[in-house]
Prior knowledge:
InterPro entries: DUF6701. By secondary structure, the chain is mostly beta strands. The protein has 2 domains: 14-152, no CATH class; 155-316, no CATH class.
Amino acid sequence: MQAQNQQQEPTYNYGYFADAYKVGIQVVAAAQQTPDGKGNNLTERVDFSEWDRVAGHNWRRNWQQEAITVPTAPLLFTRLNAMQGATVSAFGSTQPDGPYRVALGIAPQEVENCAQMGCPELYTRDMTVFNCTVGTACESTFRAQSFATFSARYGRMVMDDTAGRSGQALAIPLRVEYWNGEAFTVHEADHVSVFDGEYFCQQPLSDPAVRGKTLGNGEVMQGQAASGALNAQQDAGSDDRPHRAQIRFWQKLVDNAPSANHDADLPIYCQSGTVDREGGTQPWLLYNWRKQGDENPSAVVTFGTYRGNDRVIYRGEKGMNFRLP
């Protein structure tokens, strides 16, 4: 952003003015294509903390001669809290909304001594931003100048239950979905979400002596893991048990141990570490699967059942993955 005089020439000494005589800027976010008369302000949903970490908390007023530069660090679009003050998990419980096409814009901060110093205005302003959030009605607006757009979608990683013979590696279908405004659908544009069987939690559901592990890693392609890319396998000796056994496996997208649903449930065991995506975790793919708050994706794996072709015979095996007594 550049400070200019009335002749539209750069004001190179603007950064040397006293703070009381310099205007700051604010970055705002607004949903595009909202219904007439409805709010579009999404600024509170954008986490600018990485910008503040990189450029300092005062960057919005840190004029360098005639210019302020907007940081280039990543932003995080936050989720709606489904339960205010929720403590059911470390990540609370969120609710799907969107999807949104979000425009980022710049507007001047309010100036207290406008009469003495003049009221700086943006030379161009192509955004109308309501002073109320998406889904609410209000008439108060202000203008801003857009400089970037991005898509915001509520996503989750899904693992499907599976079953098969003991002693064999069983494929766990995995995909990434997003909320399209009416239902969850496969996120076919996702080629970057990752999974890694090395990092998992497990909970025996039927036999405390049966343990297992998950294997395989990679990225999704068009929102789905390749067939057989993620597998579950019993530990050595577990396949000698004389009956079917079930284990729930979680993918550790974040380093947060899941909670048992009931006090009588068997313990949950977790490997250390998390699935790594460019040095970070993937909290945006958590979901409230078990009414325990947002958590890592999981699947129930049944060892000791012959299924044959996963996509054909499974449909006729009603209740096969019901929890065993």
